[in-house]
Specification:
This protein is mostly beta strands. The protein has two helices and 31 strands. Strands 9, 10, 11, 12, 13 and 14 form a six-stranded antiparallel beta sheet that branches. Strands 1-22-21-20-19 form a five-stranded mixed beta sheet, with no helix packed on it.
């Protein structure tokens, strides 16, 4: 049974100290755009320098491999996967799962360490004479070499919600033997059989003094081998005050580290951390429609405290990102531009015109 412990701020700073050696330089941003492209954006030139055509359709998610050499793009138009070589900006593999009588629906996933297999949750639709038969949600393995679904196992009823559903975050253990799906529970599967070998209920983790713990998406700016790093939301078991913080899950020992940061707002758009691990930023949204208010929160990770806040104009839908050197904050998505804010002052610095409407597939940054 995994153990749980709360980590002090000093422990977090030590765990992230290796990030201080990362170089600060302009990077290349990849973003999905309508109807079927990836935009290649050069931070140094502040311009779109290329477009990658996706023959399988509209991009819905992007996953950067741990070595930074491949981007795995999933598309919704034909239920496709396209693999991009980050060095050459070329599509090195592409295929659609749909055919004349069978269709699939899936959203995101993760590749194994070898880059051969892609793991996800999917639903199959089979066309009959007068209707489509909808299959049950299943764990699925897609062979990227054979370009087809090679194994599926139906989800147990308790995992249809607790396993994170279509928006679950997925990780593979370093040895490729286990698949982790992060939702209200952490569902752990044997990759050889797709059978559930363990479930870790986060509702009341032992020894943390927290309850109702839930994970958000993985933090792309913190790439620690063998770990899943994420925001979490939780409540204390006595007066049920909600809080947010940083969580680390070790994919080998299955041990959690929780570092509470502060009271949880109504919603948060991810966490971005500077390369040295000392400063972090998030976007907080409170209220709805005409009463909606959006703010940047700047946090000092040594003290686990919010040191600055600044309001900015809300969009109806948006994503939040950061430059790889930690000096710029980005507001983008469902629009034709990127709003660039200075990380120190939290002031709007400029707006970059993309010339294309971007999707919700997110942003991948590479050196």
């Amino acid at each position: 049974m995994p153990t749980f412990r709360t980590v002090l701020a000093a422990g977090l700073a030590a765990g992230l100290s290796v990030l201080a050696t990362l170089p600060a330089s302009a990077s290349t941003l990849f973003m999905g755009s309508y109807p079927d492209e990836l935009l290649v954006f050069d931070e140094g030139k502040a311009a779109v320098t290329g477009k990658i055509k996706l023959d399988t359709g509209l991009p819905t998610s992007m996953l950067l491999s741990d070595d930074g050499k491949r981007i795995y793009v999933t598309t919704i138009t034909t239920s496709g996967i396209e693999v991009i070589d980050t060095a050459t900006r070329k599509v090195v593999n592409k295929f659609s799962l749909n055919d004349g009588v069978t269709r699939y629906r899936f959203w995101g996933g993760t590749a194994d360490p070898t880059g051969r297999y892609f793991y996800t949750m999917l639903t199959r639709f089979d066309k009959g004479m007068d209707r489509y038969t909808v299959g049950k949600p299943s764990w699925g393995v897609i062979d990227l070499k054979l370009q087809k679904v090679v194994r599926t196992v139906e989800l147990d009823k308790e995992d249809e919600r607790g396993g994170g559903g279509w928006r679950a975050a997925y990780k593979i253990s370093p040895d490729g033997k286990f698949l982790y799906a992060f939702g209200e529970k952490v569902v752990i599967l044997d990759t050889a059989t797709l059978k559930v070998v363990d479930r870790i209920d986060l509702a009341k983790p032992e020894g943390t003094g927290l309850e109702n713990v839930g994970f958000g998406g993985a933090i792309d700016t913190i790439r620690t081998p063998g770990q899943f790093v994420s925001l979490f939301n939780a409540a204390d078991p006595y007066i049920h005050n909600k809080m947010f913080g940083l969580a680390r899950f070790d994919l080998n020992s299955r041990q959690f580290d929780f570092t509470p940061i502060g009271p949880a707002p109504e919603s948060m758009a991810g966490l971005q951390m500077t390369p040295d691990g000392k400063q972090a930023y998030t976007v907080v949204t409170n209220g709805k429609l005409g009463n909606k208010r959006c703010e940047f929160w700047h946090m000092d990770m040594a003290t686990n405290s919010v040191v600055d806040k600044a309001e900015f104009p809300c969009r109806s839908r948006f994503r939040f990102g950061m430059s790889m050197d930690g000096t710029k904050l980005y507001i983008y998505g469902a629009s034709y531009d990127i709003e660039v804010y200075d990380a120190k002052t939290l002031k709007l610095e400029t707006t970059w015109d993309l010339g294309n409407d971007t999707t919700g597939a997110g942003m991948v940054a590479v050196e």
